[in-house]
């Protein structure tokens, strides 16, 4: 136990509650479209931003003081990692959220070599396992940090040095093992540096082949050991690299098709990454569902006055509702969920700020999902969508050929007039619900 969150009581649902540590909209047991709200949203806390991030930015270093940070705990040690785990589960109990996510480097100290990293990971996952025995919080997904250490400055799977590729592959093997041991429901691969800085020293063909083979090996190993959760890729267009190979959902799907993995791998889509790619979050969600690879989401937001990934907690209900409308249209989450890959602002120094940020975000998501569900149940948008394409319900135009179609147009005197898309009317319908 720690005293980091001392005096903070478990957060309760009270629509008339005072203060900023009360759920006013998120009632886990409320039924929406025949399903508990908790089971719809499947909230998850990101270990990295909540417990490992020190409050730095590109222009300044650490602002947060945590008792498990190396400077306060006498070094990056197993004891410090266990203290961090204690604080994490104390926060999970306060929030009552059902899941958490981690990178290996978030939960274990960095060792001198691969063997020490593996030993540290084994020890700390055993410890986390004992914490889970006394908690309702489960593991949504695990992943490997293949971008933070200097060895990965030129990528991991796409690195020009085969020794780095080997170290990364071995690390992923241990992280899949750890995820399975802790009962994780998914495994995510995020290639933070799988891209290039300049084409002057880059072989695109070789690096793409390396990335494809790496992913195939990860999928093969996961299935070999009986890990039956979803394997996911998290798309991102750039930052820190100039261009990343998993740019967006469409790019990832093309990659999966090339390597025969479209039925094996899904996507974990982040709001901030979608914006950096020049898309909306709902676009990426709708496309993933259309392609059959929708898996999970990281729910955060960018500052639209900044040109980089600021990872802020969501605070815009209409924006969030658009996302959940697509999630619900896709059938909702199965093994995936809503992971808060979001971090405090570097001036938010107090432990209670971390609780308040999650409480507010959970309420925003609950409001957004309920609005989206009400809109779906109303049916006006879906009825309008179906009516727009109703003409395709008859005939076999797509099974025809150009000559036959040309004859049909001449014979029937087809001379179509444009039809209104009725966008403003549909937007008015939307705004009645949010």
TrEMBL record:
GO terms for molecular function: magnesium ion binding; xylose isomerase activity. Mg(2+) 2 binds at residues 270, 273, 309, 311. It catalyses: alpha-D-xylose = alpha-D-xylulofuranose. Binds 2 magnesium ions per subunit. One of its GO terms (biological process) is D-xylose metabolic process. Gene3D superfamilies: Divalent-metal-dependent TIM barrel enzymes. Keywords: Carbohydrate metabolism, Cytoplasm, Isomerase, Magnesium, Metal-binding, Xylose metabolism. The active site is at 103, 106. GO terms for cellular component: cytoplasm. Homotetramer. This is Xylose isomerase. The gene is xylA.
């Amino acid at each position: 136990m720690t005293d980091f969150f001392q005096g903070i009581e478990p957060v309760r649902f009270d629509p008339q509650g005072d203060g900023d540590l009360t759920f006013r909209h998120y009632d886990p047991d409320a039924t929406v479209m025949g399903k508990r709200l908790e089971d719809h949203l499947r909230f998850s806390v990101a270990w990295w931003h909540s417990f490992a991030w020190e409050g730095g930015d590109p222009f300044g270093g650490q602002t947060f003081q945590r008792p498990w940070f190396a400077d306060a705990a006498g070094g990056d040690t197993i004891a410090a990692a266990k203290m961090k785990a204690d604080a994490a589960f104390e926060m999970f109990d306060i929030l009552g959220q059902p899941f958490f996510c981690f990178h290996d480097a978030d939960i274990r100290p960095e060792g001198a070599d691969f063997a020490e990293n593996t030993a540290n990971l084994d020890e700390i996952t055993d410890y986390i396992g004992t914490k889970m025995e006394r908690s309702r919080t489960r593991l949504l997904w695990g992943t490997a940090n293949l971008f933070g250490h200097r060895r990965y400055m030129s990528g991991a799977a796409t690195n020009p040095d085969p020794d780095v590729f080997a170290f990364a592959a071995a690390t992923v093997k241990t992280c899949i093992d750890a995820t399975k041991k802790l009962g994780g429901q998914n495994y995510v691969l995020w290639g933070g540096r799988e891209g290039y800085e300049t084409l002057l020293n880059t072989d695109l063909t070789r690096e793409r082949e390396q990335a494809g083979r790496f992913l195939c090996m990860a999928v093969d190993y996961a299935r070999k050991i009986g890990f039956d959760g979803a394997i996911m890729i998290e798309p991102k267009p750039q930052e820190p690299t100039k261009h990343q190979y998993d740019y967006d959902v469409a790019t990832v799907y093309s990659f999966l098709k090339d390597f025969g993995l479209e039925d094996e791998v899904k996507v974990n889509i982040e709001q901030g990454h979608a914006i950096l790619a020049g898309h909306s979050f709902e676009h990426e969600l709708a496309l993933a569902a259309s392609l059959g690879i929708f898996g999970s989401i990281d729910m955060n937001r960018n500052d639209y006055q900044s040109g980089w990934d600021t990872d802020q907690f969501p605070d815009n209900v209409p924006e969030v509702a658009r996302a959940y409308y697509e999630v619900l249209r896709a059938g909702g989450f199965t093994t995936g969920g809503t992971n808060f890959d979001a971090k405090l602002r570097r001036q938010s120094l107090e432990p209670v700020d971390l609780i308040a940020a999650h409480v507010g975000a959970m309420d925003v998501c609950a409001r957004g999902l309920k609005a989206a569900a009400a809109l779906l149940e109303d049916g006006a948008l879906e009825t309008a969508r179906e009516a727009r394409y109703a003409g395709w319900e008859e005939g076999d135009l797509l099974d025809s050929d150009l000559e036959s179609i040309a004859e049909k147009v001449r014979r029937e005197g087809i001379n179509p007039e444009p039809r209104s898309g009725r966008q403003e009317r549909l937007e008015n319908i939307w705004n009645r619900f949010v």
